[in-house]
Amino acid sequence: MTAPALTELAAGQEVVTFRLQEMDFCIGIGFVREIRGWTPVTVLPRAQGFVTGVINLRGMVVAVVDLAARLGLGATIPGPRHVVIITAAGGRVTGLLADTVSDILTLDSGMVKPLPDQVANGAREFMSGIATLQDGRMLRMLDLTHVLPVAAGGPG
Predict the structure, then answer these.
(1) Where exactly are the structural domains of the chain?
(2) pTM assigned to the model
(3) Is 115 buried (19+), middle (13-18) or exposed (0-12) by CB count in 10 A?
(4) Alpha-carbon distance values, 156 to 49, 51, 70, 90, 150 (Å)
(5) What gap in Å lies between CA 67 and CA 130, rounded to an integer?
(6) Which of 13, 24, 81, 85 could potentially form a cystine with 96 if both were Cys, beta carbons 3.0 to 4.6 Å apart?
(7) Half-sphere exposure of 110 (CA within 13 A, CB side)
(8) Which fold would CATH assign to domain 3-145?
């Protein structure tokens, strides 16, 4: 199931890179609608632990996901330096809480590598591959179809 996402990013597609707890991640730019500074959210009781709350985005109520918490890296205490990446995937608009947005890059096919076989299934669930950059950094390529919360009423 991760092969299509890997293929999509292998053909010179642009990605938005961002940081979570000193780690570099990326998602395809086609999923990104806008990048906003942190604003307080409206907390919802009994929401999934990684959903910080909701924001009003020009009349639309949008869930904000603490991406670090969702990936098992611990909860984020958001502040003015944090950003919310507004994404659209699978017919849903969702905000992703991140530390900072770093750059927009074009990935060449030679930069995109599959995850090693030894990587745990938990990591494979959320990542479609690794992008190796000329400066030595490696970007963890997120698969938003698995990162984003399931629809209301579904498992999660």
Answers:
(1) 3-145
(2) 0.85
(3) middle
(4) 10, 11, 11, 16, 6
(5) 18
(6) 85
(7) 2
(8) OB fold (Dihydrolipoamide Acetyltransferase, E2P) (2.40.50)
Neighbour-count burial for 21-53, b at 16+ CB within 10 Å, e otherwise:
eeebbbbbeebbeebeebeebeeeeeeeebbbe
Q: For residues 51 and 64, is the Cβ–Cβ distance under 8 A?
A: yes
Q: Predicted confidence band at 134 (pLDDT cuts at 50, 70, 90)?
A: confident
Instruction: Look up residue 99 and give its two tokens.
Output: 């530390």
Q: 13 near 106, Cβ under 8 Å?
A: yes
In three-state secondary structure terms, 6 is helix
Rounded-to-integer distance, Cα 12 and Cα 15, Å: 9
140-150 per-position pLDDT tens digit: 999 888 888 66
Place of tokens 């927009």: 104
Per the rule left: phi > 0, alpha: psi between -120 and 50, beta: everything else, 110 is: alpha
